[in-house]
Amino acid sequence: MNKATRILALLAVLAGGFAASAPAALTDPAQIQTEAYVNLVQADQSLDAGRLDEALTQYNAARDYYLQLAQDFPGWEPKIIQYRKTYCDNQILDVGRRLAGGGVEELPELEALPPVAAAEPEPEAADAEPLPSSSVELDYLKSRVTRLENELAALDTDNLRLREELKSATQAKADLDAMRAELGKKDERIQALEKELGAKQQLDQALNDMEASINDLRAENARLKAEMKNLDAELDDAEVRADQAELKAKQAEDQLKNAEKTAQKAEKEAQKARDQQAEAEARLADAKKKTETERPKVEADKAKTGAPAKPAEKKVEAAKSEPAAAPATASPVAATVPPRAVPKGMSAADFVRQLLQEGENDAALATVQEARKARPTDMNLVLIESIALIRLQQYREAAAMLVDLAKNNPRNAEIHATLGAAMMGAGFYEEARETLLMAVKFDKNLPECHFNLAQLYALVDPKDLKQARKHYKQALDLGVAPDAQLDKILK
């Protein structure tokens, strides 16, 4: 490719890069020249107004029309067509340089064209442009070709640099692909590590749960050891008391032997006294005749030594030996409904418990109070009446009935559990907690007792969520239905 061809190609590339869509195909050369001239005038006006993009589009459109005339109608005013096409090329280069941020280049002025032929219509009464001389136009084209050759050399240098950059970019792309592949492997490794981390967290949670269970077992073991220690102490006390009782029994046996010896001695003395009495009676008979006044005194002495114990004294001793009966606890609340008749073959206590299970709390209270009239000190009936009072929310009255009952039955788990529930309902939370703990100490299989302890530990100060969870779990294991409030607090 020679220099002229390269220059023309460069001009075509520069012009085509900034041109808009190709103009509509026209067949009349006069019409084509008119369209070209209109676009050229509008392009100059847009350039003067500073609208570079609009001016570039219109210069390209005008140049395309002049190229069409030169190719399709080479005999149609060739000098004017070549002059205006060259003018469009110069303006396109200048506008492109301005858009790229460069300054305005001073282009050589073209000589005026001769008057335009009458065949070409001029829009808006535009004046004809003079034709330049061929030598001036040739000099301008030569200088323009030189400038373009310099720009082409610079473009070749840029092209070489761009090829090197493209080569470096290709290598960088290959390195980037390798890095992406390595990054994908690392992502897979990270995902595997995240899965391992999740498994480790689950294992840690399981270990924490096991540790909590171990701590609970340790606490339970410590409590059992304390209970065993207390039982050992009680056993030691019982052994001491047994030794003391054995010692007392031995002492009593010794005293019995001594008493037998004393009795034998007393029998001898009594025999001796009887002999002396017989001798005295003989002397008395002899003296009876002598003095009648001494007879009443002797008879009184005899009556005094041989009189039996008074019946009142025996009655007192018998009363002292009889055990005192437990005091009867009166019903603190009167029933509001009549009592139910107890079915045959069923005890009053079982029938009242059945009424409580069926929710007949008022009827249960009336029935148990009726049954207590015949057995006021029956411990089971007193306990059932207190349960009925708790069902009727008479907590203070139930607690008042159960206090004495718990004192008389200190190791009864059900009585302490019921007393703890009554105290809890009455607002005596600390006393309720202690009483319920005593109940589960005697019997661990009390579901309502464990549930009440879970509520106290979870809702009442001082709170202990660990103890609350333990007792709540035991209550659930024993059949108590789950509680939404406790589930939310102990979650």
Name the descriptors:
Serine Threonine Protein Phosphatase 5, Tetratricopeptide repeat; 491 residues; rod-shaped; single chain; disordered N terminus; 16 helices; mainly alpha
Structure description:
This protein is mainly α and 491 residues long. The chain has 16 helices and no strands. The radius of gyration is 65 Å and the shape is rod-shaped. The two termini are 86 Å apart.
- Summed over residues and divided by their number, the pLDDT gives a mean of 78
Structural class: mainly alpha
Q: What name does CATH use for the topology of one domain?
A: Serine Threonine Protein Phosphatase 5, Tetratricopeptide repeat
SSE succession: HHHHHHHHHHHHHHHH
Name the helicity range: over 70%
Main sheet properties: none
The geometry reads as rod-shaped
According to DSSP, the number of beta strands is 0
What is the gist of this entry?
With 491 residues, this protein is mainly α. The chain has 16 helices and no strands.
Topology of this structure?
Elements: H1 3-18, H2 29-48, H3 52-72, H4 78-99, H5 134-288, H6 295-306, H7 311-321, H8 348-357, H9 361-374, H10 379-391, H11 395-408, H12 413-426, H13 429-442, H14 447-459, H15 465-477, H16 484-489
